Amino acid sequence: IAQVTTIPVVVHVLYSNAAENVSDAQIDSQIRALNENFRKRNADVASVPAPFAPYAADAMIEFVLANRDPGGNPTSGITRTAINGSYPYDGRDDQATITLDSLIKEAGSGMSAWPASSYLNLWVCPIQGGLLGYAQFPGGNASTDGVVINVTAFGVGGSAVSPYDLGRTAVHEVGHWLNLLHIWGDDRGGCLHSDNVADTPNQANANTGAPRYPNVSCNNGPDGDMFMNFMDYTDDAVMTMFTRDQVARMTATLLGPRASLAL
Ligand code: ARG
Ligand code: ZN
Ligand code: CA
What we know:
The protein is α/β, with parallel strands linked by helices. It contains four helices and eight strands. It has helices at residues 24-38, 98-104, 168-177, 244-255; strands spanning 5-15, 61-65, 78-82, 120-125, 133-135, 147-150, 208-209, 233-234. Strand 1, helix 1 and strand 2 (61-65) form a beta-alpha-beta unit. The chain is globular and about 55 Å long. The protein starts with a strand and ends in an 8-residue tail after the last helix. The chain binds arginine, zinc ion and calcium ion (CA). Arginine binds at residues 94, 131-134, 153, 164, 168-169, 172, 233-236, 239. It comes from Ahniella affigens. One of its GO terms (biological process) is proteolysis. GO terms for molecular function: metal ion binding; metallopeptidase activity. This is Zinc metalloprotease.
């Protein structure tokens, strides 16, 4: 029987000015967005084109701010740390951010992770240069495990900046954290690489903005790229679904390398 898995989240807010010290309401909006999208309760899933609609799936995963800290004491599930200024983006890609990690995830310049076996660590912080966020895949170093979201792309409305103001950067990054690859397989223009997910069409490259349906590549017509998938790079208002096979991959992660997290 399918059963909902609940994941405790700690949000580490790192701020260099008052605006970056996001409100509890902004944090709640992000948790709500994660829950809506992972439970397929986002109203805009109705806009998925008919040929793709049967693949849209409820991941059966929910998120809740932690109510116990690593010492077992009551907590809001939020830490707040003042920092010196925004972090420099080191120009590496999406998941590879050695410089950023060493600043964001360490005491002194940032905030160290709570035990990755018990919490999803979510750092919110100012990052220069347009990186919306990044994630660590399962199996990595516990001290850097979790997701990082640029403050400008965190939460719904409020301090989040359009077109990344529906909380879907975190949905995308938590997808990586649960072992999902980009839907285009990180081909950079070719059609050779897969996301190792059977029910997503092969796709040449990342889509950005709001493409017109259908958007064909890699002989994937007539329906084309599934650019409305959370694991593409389209605008928040465009990405609306995970597929069944993506959900199967995330479920396998929660039964395997991340089993200790399930509440
Ligand atoms: N790591 C990706 C980036 O920084 C995240 C893309 C998220 N996309 C979105 N529409 N929120 O570009
Ligand atoms: Zn990504
Ligand atoms: Ca595929």
